[in-house]
Amino acid sequence: MQAEAARVQRGEIGRPTWQVMGNRLRAHIVPLLGDVPVAVFTTADVQRLIDHLGGQGFTSTTIAQYLVLLRKVVMHGVHVGALREAPVFPKVKVRSQPRGSFSVAEYRALIAAARSLRGHSHPVLDRLTAGERFWIARELLVMPDELPWLIRWMVNTFVRPGDIKLMKHKHIEVVRGKHVYLRMNLPETKRHSQPIVSLRPAVRVYECLLAYRETHGFSGAEDYIFMPHLKNREHALAVLNFFFHWVLEKTGLEKGPLGQSRTLYCLRHTAITLRLLYGQGIDMLTLARNARTSVNMVERFYASVLSGEMNVGLLQSRRGRMN
To answer: 31 pLDDT exceeds 60?
Structure first.
């Protein structure tokens, strides 16, 4: 972990990645394999971890990530001379499963439900006894006015939930010219730092949200855009996820078409998927760069849910007749 911390200092990996490594070591790898003598560590021990994680219900993708971390530990042992060589690691077949994006009808239903719930107390309040504590303060257990804006914002800006907790007004610029859009110079996430360009509807969302913030004293350049009154930004994002799940329950959309559990992240998936469906002639590279991801990720996790029939018009289109 000290060696990986040095990589953080050099900018090779992000601090959140380093923190996840520590969490995974403490949660499963050290409790299961920590007492195994280095000299007798074999492929069978690696398989034991795979079987253990599978028994805990982890997906093949997560298990593969644990194996990457275990391999780092083993190779560190080789580098310091504790191990002569690394044992063979069994292969785990990873099957990429796209997140459950929303259709246009489902997207509209989410917005309608979020609007109808504004100002309503969450049902959990009815189950709490006097003085009983909940992880969200009682005064916050009321559907916030901003949730419908958040849903529309994410589908029209391509941002990740991790961006939501960091965004401040100083990061947003309204551009009005031949095209009307938001230019978002957001803090670096997942080693991407290029500005993001929004779709036009995001401008209206931001203007409404900004006017609302001005009446409550949170419209300054250093104020956060969503949940600005919560200084703990991890908690702010968790609260927004909590209320979004309430909206999912209200609409019956908790599961995706393949049975995936839906979260705020599915709104980003929806933004990219809808652009692939309805963006006239948009190319993968432009979309990927604007969404701060790679073409490979777009193809694996976003375009994989599209079928030929969804864009049958483009498939059947013809260029002008050659003279």
So the answer is: yes
Q: How far apart are CA 216 and CA 224, in angstroms?
A: 13
> What's the CA gap between 196 and 184, in Å, rounded?
5
* Cβ neighbours of 18 (radius 10 Å): 15
Say how many residues make up the chain.
323
Residue 316 pLDDT? 41
Q: Which CATH number among 3.40.720.10, 3.60.15.10, 1.10.443.10, 3.40.50.720 corresponds to the domain 104-308? A: 1.10.443.10
Q: What is the pTM assigned to this prediction?
A: 0.73
**Of 147, 163, 165, 158, whose CA–CA distance to 212 is shortest?**
147
pLDDT digits (tens, 9 = 90+) for 59-111: 888 899 999 999 999 999 999 999 888 999 998 887 655 667 899 999 999 99
